[in-house]
Prior knowledge:
- There is one protein chain.
- By secondary structure, the protein is an alpha/beta fold.
- The protein has two domains: 2-111 and 295-331, Medium-chain alcohol dehydrogenases, catalytic domain (Quinone Oxidoreductase, Chain A, domain 1, Alpha-Beta Complex), CATH 3.90.180.10; 128-265, Rossmann fold (3-Layer(aba) Sandwich).
- Helix content is 29%, strand content 27%.
- The chain is built from ten helices and 15 strands.
- The strands form three sheets. Strands 3, 4, 5, 6, 7, 14 and 15 form a seven-stranded mixed sheet that branches. The chain has a six-stranded parallel sheet with strand order 10-9-8-11-12-13, with helices on both faces. A two-stranded antiparallel ribbon has the order 1-2.
- α1 (42-48) crosses α10 (304-312).
- The model has no long low-confidence stretch (mean pLDDT 96).
- NADP nicotinamide-adenine-dinucleotide phosphate (NAP) is lined by residues 41-43, 126-127, 130, 154-160, 178-180, 198, 219-220, 241-245, 266-269, 311, 314, 316.
- The site of NADP nicotinamide-adenine-dinucleotide phosphate has 31 residues, from α1, α2 and α3.
Amino acid sequence: MFQTLLVTKDDDGQHVAFAQLDESDLPDGNVTIDVEYSSLNYKDGLALTGGPVLRKFPIVPGIDLSGVVTDSSDRRWEVGDRVVLNGWSTGEQYWGGYTQRSRVNGDWLTRLPDSIDTRRAMAIGTAGYTAMLSVLALEEHGVAPETGPVVVTGAAGGVGSVAVAVLSKLGFEVVASTGRPAEAGYLKTLGASDVIDRAELSGDVSPLGRARWAGAIDTVGSNTLANVLSSTRDNGCVAACGLAGGADLPASVLPFILRGITLAGINSVTQPSHRRDQAWARLATDLDMDLLDSMTTVEPFGRLPELAREILAGNIRGRVVVDVNSGDPAKG
Ligand SMILES: NC(=O)c1ccc[n+]([C@@H]2O[C@H](COP(=O)([O-])OP(=O)(O)OC[C@H]3O[C@@H](n4cnc5c(N)ncnc54)[C@H](OP(=O)(O)O)[C@@H]3O)[C@@H](O)[C@H]2O)c1
């Protein structure tokens, strides 16, 4: 028997409850995993509170997991392999990571670099891996430490915190935008050179503002993304990966046609395996693991429903690892 968090749906809406399942309940797949850790992302917060994320019921939510292979009929994976799974619609359409055991399609797995254990893999999680995909996009569009500062919006959140830490380790001047001034010290510890109030970027959109940064990683969307675009320097690049402030984009074409900037969309869910390997390899070398530990809290399985509400309220700092084997979920 093993514990899962299960979401069911009926005429009254979605219901979230812990359940004890056995091997016969596992979904189809060719690799079985003892899950060691999962994590909490903004999308998980939406999924657990009835947001438009889950596409099949009943379902085990959780878009991340890390663990050890216990059985495999896929020749690429052997018993004892340490793996991570992000995206591929797990925790949305297929069984996700809020379980002590899972069975998955071997195509979806990524081998963990030797220097990243399963707990740190979930401290990184989808948020950190998305931050690295965003950094890769900036680099591929010519943004480098010598081209100018990079702004990170939603900086005290999960994607934002990892982005600040990685960019700073790479030698960038990082401007962190946050709505939580009390987190300025935290963001400077991660490597931000400057911390600005999110209100500077969330107001009325200027079609073409003062050119301030060579690049940006935006987790907020809406007016914030539009203002970031309009304040990006000639030939700069903005990696757009989030919508914590809204899914709209009230922007003008002027930054594109007068400054030649690039808007790079980031979708972590559908990246091919080689891109995932590249991102995880870069996380192993370009993310300071002590800083990662400092931005991470480890929480017991049973607190997930409460934590889901907290992340949507913008109250979570950095990253939350979920220890699915800790505590009695029924007791919270
Ligand atoms: N494209 C992808 O594949 C992908 C992957 C992962 C995540 N995402 C998206 O990226 C975003 C961040 O995810 P996350 O897991 O890092 O979430 P998170 O930990 O909750 O961070 C989001 C941050 O955004 C800021 N924020 C929240 N509400 C806001 C508002 N109304 N206006 C402006 N800023 C606001 C807050 O930062 P401050 O307190 O510092 O202001 C918050 O900490 C989410 O929209 C998520 O869906 C996308």
